[in-house]
Amino acid sequence: MEINQRTLTIRLSEMKDAQQLMDLDAIVWDDYSSPEPLNWTSREDFLRHCQPGSQFVAFVDHKLCGYVGFRYPTLIRSNHHVYEINIAVHPQYQQERIGTRLMETLKEWATEQGIKKLSLRVLSSNEGALKFYEKCGFVREGRLIKEFYVGGRYVDDILMGYFL
Predict the structure, then answer these.
(1) Does pTM surpass 0.90?
(2) Which domains does the chain have, with CATH numbers?
């Protein structure tokens, strides 16, 4: 796949991607996009929570520029038709449709795996992310009012879903 004369590669994550994924998390997840910044204490800590193969990663000319992670929301078997997802795109690569391509890849793959629903949570203050998810076909399913206190104010947590 090409993007502005550069090569875009999307694949499942591998062990060798851990450090770049940790670095991207440190850049993307801040008080605006998350209830608190995401800082991994070690590579082992990251790999314990984000095992290889639990994300689709996007590279532009061999540089990690984004990912979409997925997992079952609970250990309850009757909930294993759902993937809870999280997506991050490096600020330098936003507006280049990388997030959209990651989401399209995940939707196709999840359908092949028998998944029926994708769900996510997003802060009400993150209007850009809300618009992106709605553009990708997600619908608002719920709202946890004043769920977090971020940046000196209360912020709602929006629950969204996409049915495959």
Answers:
(1) yes
(2) 2-163 (3.40.630.30)
